[in-house]
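Dock adenosine-5'-triphosphate; give full complex structure.
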Amino acid sequence: MRALNSHVILLDVHYHQVPTSSFAYFRNSHFISSLRCSRRNGIRCSASLQIRRPSDRFYSGNASSPSTSRPEAATELNLFLELLPLKMRRELYRHREIGGLIEVVMDLGRKPLARFPSGDWVISEQPIKHEDLCHAISKVGEFSDDNRSGIDRSLHRISAIRNRKMQIVGLTCRVGRAVSGSAEIIRDLVEDGGSILVIGPPGVGKTTLIREIARTLADEFKKRVVIVDTSNEIGGDGDVPHAGIGRARRMQVPNVNMQHNIMIEAVENHMPETIIIDEIGTELEALAASTIAQRGVQLVGTAHGMTIENIIKNPYLQILVGGIESVTLGDEEARKRKVQKTILERKGHPTFTCAVELVSKTECRVHHRLDATVDAILAGKPPLFELRQWDDSANDLVKYPPMPEKNHGETSDLTNNNIMSSDIASDKDDKDYPRTWSKKWSTNGSVIKRSSPMQVYTYKILEADLLQVAKVMGLEAVIDVTDDVGTADAILASSSEMRQNPWIRGMAKFHQLPVFVIKSNTMAQMVKAVRMILGLESFGSTQKKPLKGSLDIEIEDDEPKRKPSLEEIDALEEVRLAIEYIVIPGGEPVELLPRRSEIIARQLELVQRYHLAAEKSGTEQNPRLQILPLRLNTKKPSKSSSVARKKTSPAPVSADDGRNDTGVTRLPILPE
Ligand SMILES: Nc1ncnc2c1ncn2[C@@H]1O[C@H](COP(=O)(O)OP(=O)(O)OP(=O)(O)O)[C@@H](O)[C@H]1O
């Protein structure tokens, strides 16, 4: 016996009788691709056999140990091949890509086809006969109402096509395999614990990927994982789940229309930390997914579609991305945003944190923030994604940092503003990618002179909040938000999210951007952040400066120096609520309750931290404060200051002239 390589062994054997055909095969995974024999007297012969295993790693590109090489995999391929009549089986065995076989198609009266990654191959010139179909059907379990069946303890999927009398006239037999390591391409997302939506065209490998995700989460991250296995495709046919799902538990679905019920049942009865669900396709299933996500369970699900845009356009699946609604803007708002009056907007939070568009078995696009991607698509901007490829030669993952999809807006019919998207595309074309140090921040941490608004990329902070604060501060012309981190000057993020999603720091490092970190999502912190981003406020002694390589700036609250009384706390809370719920969002003045003058002084200090104006009203015995939706005389960037104004904002009513139209005396403004 001679081993040519790990796959091929040359074996010299003596048979008393050899088959008359020039090849034979064994019932285990090994097969003989050639047999040269010499017959002597028709009785004895010596033969040279080439025994080849089905290719172990047919697909290039997977993680450290992506492999289908378990002995069971070979046995399972045999189980699959037994579906075929003997003659077809022999033909198929001879194919050099047998280890990577994807599907066999058998249609009555037509030549059988085998689908390989390299393309389709006619297995036999003989058309499929009724007996051939009967033979295959006899080897599989019962077909369920979605016309799918399987082979006990294997991952293969057999789908039937029926005639009008409900007789089976065609079969699509898919080879299922557990590919260990196939989830390495998105391991960080799996580990992060966010909900992941995997989309891709049929056959790209979605089921295989989420099967491996289920195994990884259950076995390596020790999570309680429940798979809602509608067609037994993830956990295999039969009541004992396939080893490919590891310790994950599997719930079978008696009827496809019950998938959504089983999803909810899984959460209610089995205390899962993660739910895995293949093929979310109906509105009820999408709703069930959203309910699960709201209950704080990590969800990993798949849906058919090439891109997120396909999901947005699908009325049943829209809810997965937060739902879409059309909003009519006022004339002025539409002019300002440079969009039509009726625009599309996202209704709520997406069910999934991030999305993965599977391009092939070794390549995907990662949308770290599904909400931002959806908003970008609706606004006609190119969504940000990170391209990932598995490099088989290096046995490593290659990540291309987030970049907007070029020309996305031009092809989309969902966009609110095509002019905007083409502007962005051309702007982007001018830039080198990846970018070099942008010089927007000088080494001592101050913003250098610029003529366009500062672009802020927000992470888990509502863009609308930032813009509203900037507007109230009269700084809307010098600060803006962007969905494209590549064009951003700074990142504003919440500290809890930074802890959970460290990739944002990596992205900041790559683009060399400072990250302003807000500890609590209060308006006061937002105001401070805006001022620091614009260089209008210096960094505190304990705050890190936005230096190259040291990019985090924590926004700290201005701590009160002494312990406030209960009355003071109450009065200050009244101010905070009034400002954050009425004055800033609604642009309306609020008159506060009468207070002692020392308390009013404290209230006024707080109002000024929001950079708002206030008036004293009430009687001398019962003084009270009225907070006005007017900004204080913020130190505006002058010609020589760090930021230059592009357009002039409406002139603010002077807050320090001592009087207003009603004759009420204004309180003096504290120096900044
Ligand atoms: N990483 C991989 N390595 C080897 N084979 C793979 C890999 N991923 C998928 N396959 C094979 O590709 C075929 C299709 O995979 P899979 O069923 O996972 O695709 P899918 O996207 O879920 O398809 P569908 O949407 O039709 O259900 C199967 O034969 C599977 O065994």
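Observed: The first strand starts at residue 2 and ends at 3.
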